[in-house]
Amino acid sequence: MVFPPKSTVKSKAKMDLTSAALDQVPTFDGAGWADKARAAARDRVAAMGLPVGRDEYWKYTDPTVFTDTDPRFDGAVAASDVFAGADALTVTIVDGAVTGDLPQIDGLDIQSLADAATADIHWAQDTFGVLEAAGQTNVERPLAAMTTALAQDGLMIQVTADIPQPLRIVYATAGGQANVHHVVKLAPGAGLTILEEGLAGARAATNMEVAVADGARFDHLRVVPVVAQRDLNTHIFARLEADATFRSFTLTPGGAMTRNEAVIDILGDNATAHIAGACLGDGDFHHDDTVFVTHDAVDCESRQVFKKVLRNGAKGIFQGKILVRPDAQKTDGYQISQSLLLDDDSQFLAKPELEIYADDVACSHGSTSGAIDEDALFYLRSRGVPHATAVDLLTLSFMAEAIEEIADPDLADIVLAHLEQTLSARQ
Amino acid sequence: MLNIKDLHVSLEEEDKEILKGLSLELEAGKVHAIMGPNGSGKSTLSYVLSGKDGYEVTGGSAQLDGQDLLDMDPEERAAAGLFLAFQYPVEIPGVGNMTFLRTAVNAQRKLRGEDEMSAGDFLKAVREKAKSLKIDADMLKRPVNVGFSGGEKKRNEILQMAMLGPKMCILDETDSGLDVDAMKLVAEGVNALRSPDRTFLVITHYQRLLDHIKPDVVHIMADGKIIKSGGPELALEVENNGYADILGEVA
Fold it and tell me: How far is A201 from A177, CA to CA, in rounded Å?
């Protein structure tokens, strides 16, 4: 165990809690690659300090639910089965620990972080904590570094072929805090679809670092279960090389507090990155999508599509940025964040940003908040559709653009069916 | 079938009376047409009967087979057998036409305490009815009215009418935005639905739709009231002389 002694940690008033949290970092046998990476992550947190409400990046979301020593909620969350019908390879993670046998097929090498960490050297070491650290460049993301430092387990996934079967990660928890860190490394021309469902903890933090090499494809679909009392903060760090494709979609049909950050660096020409999300907020619900896409190559496309349907005082946040570096000519960037407010108590706050240094680009962004379309509502009701069902249909209509971002039609159908089921269950 | 007595309606937002004591009696199996100049209250009548928000009924009644319509929610009126073919059908992106139709058909059945239609029966019925209206499989799959031409939208309204099988159909300027061929197709769809226990109220500016959907009775509406009723010849009179003569006559 080779963490720096406390006295070397930079002292800041707001550091106390971090130290307390980091003191809980488990030890591993030997001073392997993972321990070094964790120690470096711990130093990053120490240097940055934990987020506080006055930080610009946390203007709309109170970080204390994630930084308080004890989670405010406790309680078990069973494994969900949204993607049970998809023909997928399944891995189960219980209370933040990988359980059972891991699938091994040609072109797909999966190890648990707990196992991989015991080695002196490992293929994941050029990615683990590295993409996260790179993602701290423009904006500090101490929670991500904390997850890197604290996570005891996760999946180290190396892909060397285009794998037709999705890899399904199912989380379950008996309660408490869980930290999970995944690394996905796709070789040139490789491809993988990851399906994530369930919750790692009553308070859960997950990192996913994704390195997509030339011509590789990564698809990510995430469905968060409808659990009222849970807090979730997630980070995706993606690095795209030439001709790479990255797509990520998250459905959040309930829950208390969510902060989903995505940091996507497009480094190779002609690459594509799509990130989308849809959420249904009801009552004590706060959902924050914070996205930072950097274009650093020519002829690349990025799309951000986020839709939020809020009622009974639910709150939605969107902070999205497209940064186009001077050489990233022919960039095609698109960003849309919209909310459908089903009553006057709900709120949507958006901060869309474009920062463009290249002169030959097409970037568009839009952000809207609106109530239900009364004409459409009347049209549906005049056909005999009851008010609540009509509102649900218009909710689906509103979310359609985000769901269309799911590339695989069968998986899109699964997500849609789950959304419909969630909607009809809450009437 | 539909009895409207001395109906007075104002706009909720502003204190303006639109319908000023309108009475109409529509018998089962008949086609009634209402014609009238712009602003006479024709569309308001169709909206008030089908239950759109924004109107305040200050007097009178409207009964469908003895049931008081004006106290009912729009969906209850639909389940009771009322149908409005919209002048401007609403586009609903992201909701498939077929999903919408099935939701509507089954919602009405549920409200009436009937069993849902099986997927197979529903599909068969839609295909058959769509075919006669020249609505192809693609139009059924596409989101409701999105990217439909004017004619396609109106045909889609008639398809909904055919699937829902209402007893009282109100057609609000169904001819607007249609070319002659599209109008014929829509009229054929309507005529195919004529039956002794189904009543139509056709609202139109022009006589030409009535060449294709032959009315039994024609009413002239002006300033929120029916000012004259007669046979089909009344529509021809309007076509030839405009509304001025009739308005003058009544005044």
Answer: 5
- Coil, strand or helix at A376: helix
Q: List chain A residues with CB under 8 Å of B95.
A: 393-394, 396-397, 400
Tokens for B57, please give them: 């009924």
CATH number where B16 lies = 3.40.50.300
Q: Say if residue A347 is exposed, middle or buried (CB neighbours under 10 Å; 0-12, 13-18, 19+).
A: middle
Asked whether the beta carbons of A313 and A282 are under 8 A apart, the reply is no
d(CA B67, CA A349): 47
User: A385 and chain B: CB distance < 8 Å anywhere?
Assistant: yes
What does each C-alpha distance from B236 to A407, B206, B214, B230 come to in angstroms? 57, 9, 12, 11
- Close Cβ partners of A56 (under 8 Å, ≥ 6 residues apart): none
Distance CA A365, CA A304 (A): 9
- Digit-coded pLDDT (tens) for A258-274: 999 999 999 999 999 99
Nearest residue on chain A to B84, judged by CA atoms?
A382
H-helix or E-strand spanning residue A169: strand A167-172
Report the Cα A416 to chain-centroid distance in Å. Answer: 19
Contact B18, B9 (CB under 8 A): yes
pLDDT band per the 50, 70, 90 thresholds, residue B238: confident
Report whether A75 contacts A68 (CB < 8 A): no
A416 touches chain B (CB under 8 A): no
Q: List, as one string, the DSSP characters of chain B.
A: -EEEEEEEEEETTTTEEEEEEEEEEE-TT-EEEEE--TTSSHHHHHHHHHT-TTEEEEEEEEEETTEEGGGS-HHHHHHTTEEEE-SSPPPEEEEEHHHHHHHHHHHHHHHTTPPPPPHHHHHHHHHHHHHHTT--HHHHHSEETTT--HHHHHHHHHHHHHHH--SEEEEESTTTT--HHHHHHHHHHHHHH--TT-EEEEEESSSHHHHHS--SEEEEEETTEEEEEE-THHHHHHHHH-SHHHHHHH-
In angstroms, rounded to a whole number, what is the distance separating the alpha carbons of residues A160 and B38? 70
Domain count of chain B?
1
pLDDT at A15: 37
Residue B115 has what pLDDT?
92
Domain ranges of chain A: 6-372
| φ, ψ for residue B19, nearest 5 deg | -100, 130
Helix, strand or coil for residue A166? coil
Which amino acid is located at A353 in the chain? E
Write out chain A residues lying below 8 Å of B111, CB-based.
384, 386
Which residue range is the domain that position B58 belongs to?
2-250
Q: What pLDDT was estimated at residue B38? A: 86
**How far from B69 is each of A16, A174, B50, CA to CA, in Å?**
68, 55, 8
Judged by DSSP in three states, A313 sits in coil
Interface ipTM: 0.95
**Cross-chain CB nearest to B90 (options A376, A387, A389):** A376
Instruction: Give one DSSP letter per residue of A234-303, joined into a string.
Output: EEEEEEE-TT-EEEEEEEE---SEEEEEEEEEE-STT-EEEEEEEEEEESS-EEEEEEEEEE-SSS-EEE
What does each C-alpha distance from B51 to A209, A321, B82, B110, B204 come to in angstroms? 54, 45, 10, 20, 20
* N residues, chain A: 427
For residue B90, what is the nearest residue in chain A, using CA coordinates? Answer: A376
Q: How far is A371 from chain B (nearest CA, A)?
A: 15
Work out the pLDDT band at B92, boundaries 50, 70, 90: very high
The structure tokens listed for B224 are 């929120």
